Structure to design on (744 residues):
């Protein structure tokens, strides 16, 4: 029994754990280099981020993403994390109230922390609620910013799957390009 | 809940059932060695490994080979994890994994549980992920399907003592099902944006002027087998929620399909092998029925939102968004959660710890029902067949006849062994969870106070013993006590169940298949489907109700009363 055991375990380890994944990696870098490499967004030589991964925006002149519960700083992509707080947690309720700051009827995605801590999207309602603030901070006419948001609403995938949403990083990049 | 949400659920579940038809046909061919030219190729491979493919094993021989192979896999993985600091492909320079955590993780991946007491991007080198963990994703899945093949052939055979060869089954399943499936799925995932690279991390200068370290790795291939093999261990700490593991609603839909297609397909393969397709469809109907009900229950609970937060000023329109990413939507989060817990996968695309109390109860209860709805690859089918034996036994008691299933008389020995198998799960879950809830060494690991804390601990042992791997993630699981006890619960849930199952298979294979008589209970109609569902609910679920009443149900009423902890 020892011979089949060792030969199959080691054989499969080399095949499934070394040869095939390396082959897949090589083929992916040839055929789909941009996606296999993390969908990075560059400006010149500088990597700005990944189109798939959210970034932290705090100042008034940016659209803000969802609250993030990653541990050291928000949107820490080296350590994805959720709050993991339960529905009756007093800590969670206090955090939600702080984010609401007394406002009513706030879209849930603006008040609840995302599951990855890196959610790149917000809801169109959440984006719309931020238009006036961003327009004022940048000295831009409000309708212009509102139109930009409108352009950046992505429909459900194939018109069916998921939710209509706005990629915050792409929206903020487009906002910078307005000036 | 929206119409479009219901449509998403119907479409994805419909696709899974559609794909299960050809997969089931292929599984039947693999189990019976009818694969044309491929039989010659794996014959060469097996002979090179010193196996005579024509030589069968009895149930003890099959069991021994399976146990020895899994023990060796555990040792190899444990060694790789402990030594990762000295091995190559470690761009972030991680140290070796400490002993308790390595013990827990190695058991976790060998038993197809993939409970993660570590956070992938902050602890594991590329080599550990690719050559350690991902290889066990294949081999533990192959082990489960091989066992299901053995059990299926035992039902189909009559008067034999041998029902196949573990090495042959494992090799065929790995080479001709899991590997090609994972290859196709990994390129689909790469096209959707999942990285597959050996490059080290990228430091980005963010738009707002900060720095962001973006972790890359050979993610796509591991992701593909993680779902296809119902393993569930993610490359990243937040699993399929991470934008690199779940970049879009389409990717999450494909993951849902992958994690149920083999368990569904095995039911259909079973029907073909025993020569009556209706038998397989009856088992499938029970599985799909439970998945549907569970999905709708989770969807309704999460769409209703958290009344405490709504009272504070959150709009109820989106439902409960804590611990969820926006791109998937609630409907796909609900379907993913029901299938990942029903199918013993354990990957998550929404954080179950932050679900509403009833939304969190459903996945926990699905695991407690025995991981047969539809259960892990292989383990779901042989678990379901154990419940089928118990269902005909219950029916036999009602009418005072010797029960039979597919022409096999079900007698005292089989029923005793089946009960032994079914009792392993509640003993491990309730025993360890109860103990851990009174010991200070483990209550210190709880994050939440009140009934939610009890749910966190109960869920951990439920997940471990059910070989699921999902978690109420607030629990700090990386402690010597929890690493050890959860490890033991995983071993009990896997091998404590498999040993009696193979013994039953051995005794059934030896019995002749009697033709159906006028008094035979048909095991393919609605009557049997209802009976089987009832036996699963009562025998699988009843013993957990007191614990669930103290956890999620108590929390639900506390939440309605406006109480926080």
């Amino acid at each position: 029994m020892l011979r089949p055991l060792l030969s199959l375990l080691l054989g499969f380890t080399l095949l499934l754990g070394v040869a095939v994944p390396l082959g897949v990696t090589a083929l992916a870098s040839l055929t789909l280099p941009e996606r296999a490499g993390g969908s990075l967004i560059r400006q010149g030589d500088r990597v700005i981020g990944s189109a798939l991964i959210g970034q932290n925006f705090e100042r008034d002149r940016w659209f803000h993403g969802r609250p993030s519960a990653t541990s050291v700083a928000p949107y820490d992509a080296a350590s994805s994390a959720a709050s993991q707080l339960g529905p009756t947690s007093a800590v969670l309720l206090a955090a939600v109230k702080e984010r609401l700051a007394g406002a009513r009827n706030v879209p849930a995605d603006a008040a609840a922390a995302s599951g990855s801590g890196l959610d790149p999207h917000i809801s169109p309602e959440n984006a719309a609620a931020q238009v006036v603030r961003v327009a004022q901070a940048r000295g831009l006419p409000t309708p212009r910013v509102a139109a930009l948001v409108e352009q950046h609403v992505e429909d459900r995938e194939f018109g069916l799957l998921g939710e209509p949403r706005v990629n915050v990083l792409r929206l903020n990049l487009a906002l910078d390009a307005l000036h | 809940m929206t119409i479009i949400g219901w449509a998403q659920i119907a479409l994805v579940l419909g696709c899974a059932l559609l794909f299960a038809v050809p997969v089931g046909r292929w599984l039947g061919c693999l189990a019976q060695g009818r694969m044309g030219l491929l039989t010659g190729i794996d014959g060469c491979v097996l002979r090179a490994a010193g196996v005579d493919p024509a030589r069968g094993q009895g149930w003890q021989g099959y069991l021994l080979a399976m146990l020895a192979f899994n023990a060796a896999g555990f040792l190899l993985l444990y060694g790789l994890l402990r030594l990762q600091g000295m091995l190559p492909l470690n761009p972030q320079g991680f140290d070796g994994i400490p002993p308790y955590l390595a013990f827990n993780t190695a058991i976790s991946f060998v038993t197809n549980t993939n409970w993660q007491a570590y956070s992938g991007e902050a602890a594991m080198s590329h080599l550990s992920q690719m050559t350690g963990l991902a290889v066990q994703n294949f081999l533990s899945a192959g082990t489960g399907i091989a066992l299901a093949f053995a059990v299926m052939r035992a039902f189909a055979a009559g008067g034999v003592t041998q029902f196949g060869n573990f090495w042959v089954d494992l090799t065929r399943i790995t080479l001709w099902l899991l590997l090609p499936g994972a290859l196709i799925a990994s390129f689909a995932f790469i096209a959707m944006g999942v990285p597959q690279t050996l490059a080290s991390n990228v430091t980005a200068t963010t738009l707002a002027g900060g720095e962001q370290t973006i972790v890359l790795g050979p993610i796509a291939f591991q992701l593909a087998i993680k779902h296809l093999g119902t393993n569930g261990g993610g490359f990243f700490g937040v699993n399929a929620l991470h934008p690199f593991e779940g970049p879009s609603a389409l990717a999450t839909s494909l993951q849902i399909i992958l994690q149920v297609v083999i368990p569904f397909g095995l039911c259909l393969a079973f029907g073909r092998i025993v020569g009556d397709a209706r038998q397989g469809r009856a088992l499938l109907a029970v599985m799909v029925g439970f998945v549907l009900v569970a999905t709708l229950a989770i969807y309704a609970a999460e769409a209703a939102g958290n009344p405490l937060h709504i009272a504070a000023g959150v709009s109820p329109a989106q439902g409960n968004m804590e611990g969820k990413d926006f791109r998937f939507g609630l409907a796909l989060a609900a379907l993913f959660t029901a299938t990942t817990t029903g199918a013993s996968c354990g990957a998550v695309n929404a954080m179950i710890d932050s679900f509403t109390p009833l939304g969190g109860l459903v996945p926990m209860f699905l695991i407690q029902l025995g991981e047969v709805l539809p259960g892990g690859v292989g383990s779901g089918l042989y678990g379901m067949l154990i419940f089928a034996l118990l269902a005909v036994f219950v029916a036999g008691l009602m009418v005072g006849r010797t029960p039979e299933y597919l022409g096999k008389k079900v007698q005292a020995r089989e029923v005793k062994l089946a009960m032994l198998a079914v009792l392993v799960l509640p003993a491990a879950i309730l025993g360890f969870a109860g103990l851990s809830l009174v010991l200070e060494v483990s209550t210190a690991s709880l994050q939440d106070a009140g009934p939610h804390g009890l749910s966190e601990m109960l869920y951990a042992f439920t997940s471990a013993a059910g070989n699921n791997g999902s978690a109420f993630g607030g629990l700090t699981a990386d402690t010597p006590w929890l690493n050890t006890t959860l490890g033991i619960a995983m071993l009990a849930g896997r091998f404590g169940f498999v040993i009696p199952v193979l013994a039953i298979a051995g005794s059934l294979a030896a019995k002749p298949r009697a033709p159906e008589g006028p008094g035979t209970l048909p095991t393919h109609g609605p009557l049997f489907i209802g009976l089987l569902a009832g036996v699963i609910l009562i025998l699988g679920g009843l013993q957990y109700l007191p614990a669930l009443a103290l956890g999620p149900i108590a929390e639900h009423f506390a939440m309605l009363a406006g109480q926080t902890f």
Remarks:
- The first strand of chain A starts at residue 40 and ends at 43.
- Chain A touches chain B through 102 residues (CB under 8 Å).
- Chain A has a mean pLDDT of 96.
